[in-house]
Amino acid sequence: MNTADLHTLTGAYVLDALDPGERAAVERHLADCASCAQEVREFSETVTRLGLAVAAPPSAALRDEVLRRIATVRQDPPTTARTGRGGHVRPRWRPVPSWALAACLAGAVALGGVAVAQYEQAEDARQQAQRARLANDAVGAVLAAADARVATAPLRDGAVGTVVVSDSRNQAVFAASGLPAPPSGKVYQLWYNDGGGKMRPAGLMGSGTPATATLLDGPVDTASGMGVTVEPAGGSPRPTSNPVALLTFPTV
User: Fold this and answer.
1) With left for phi above 0 and alpha for psi between -120 and 50, is residue 178 left, alpha or beta?
2) Where do the Putative zinc-finger domain residues begin and end (predicted)?
3) DSSP sequence for 152-168
4) Across the beta sheet with 214-215, what order do the strands follow?
5) Is 5 helix (H, G, I), strand (E, B) or coil?
């Protein structure tokens, strides 16, 4: 695969539509191509926004309440006009029963509750999109760093792990191609290997596919490598299982 081909695969890379060999080639290419790294950041942001653009249907309780009122509230007959003196048409006003006012008020309160819930959902989606954009920007900055170094290693079950380290940013990014989803109730947790058997928590892998590039939490500092373990949802303060991946950081 030549460099020209790699320039055309950024969209498929973001959508996780590449085979392991192609994904590994693109990830190596991103470390040296600032324009492609920028494309990946922009595509990732767009995909994130599209994924958040979902409609929120009304609750079942609100639907049931509307149907109940349709069946129980009597429909008023059409109003007719009365002709007053001089042939002027006067509208016929009917007093509004108190129960009708109460029904309108209850409906307004219910709709107000729906509006508040929808606003809160929209606000949550906006904050999630903001966090995703910041994370994408941070990942892209590491991949595009002038001193970014890349290391790739085979993992179990034919998966491939790739880590990119930038000394100037003191950060690292990890991605795994072909790694199966963790068991139910479990997550993949990342660790810095500080040597001497000491593993420092470095966050959880992204919530998307395991191939999603994830920025390790915290600075690289003196870490010589990283590992990945399967942990209970929410993560653990120290590894509780054998590592599924161990990678040594590339040296200059």
Assistant:
1) left
2) 9-37
3) EEE-GGG-EEEEEEETT
4) 149-154, 160-166, 171-177, 214-215
5) helix
Rg of the chain over Cα atoms, rounded to whole angstroms, equals: 29
- pLDDT higher than 80, residue 173: yes
**For the chain, what is the mean pLDDT?**
74
The closest alpha carbon to 127, from 116, 119, 138, 139, belongs to 119
Which is higher by pLDDT, 8 or 161? 161
Q: Which amino acid is at 144?
A: A
Three-class SS of residue 242?
coil
How far is it, in rounded angstroms, from Cα 103 to Cα 100? 5
What ranges do the domains of the chain cover?
A: 3-51+146-248
How crowded is residue 138: how many other Cβ atoms within 10 Å of its Cβ?
15
> Which of the pair, 24 or 133, is modelled with greater confidence?
24
Task: Tokens 């998966």: give the residue.
Answer: 159
Per-residue model confidence (pLDDT) at position 128: 58
- Torsional class of 170: left (φ above 0), alpha (ψ -120 to 50), beta (otherwise): left
Q: Helices 98-144 and 60-72 sit at what angle, rounded to 10 degrees? A: 160
Contacts 24+ apart (CB under 8 A), 196-199: 199/227, 199/238, 199/239
The mean-pLDDT minimum among 39-48, 95-104, 181-190 falls in 95-104
Residue 134 CB-half CA count within 13 A = 5
Q: Are 182 and 230 in contact (CB under 8 A)?
A: yes
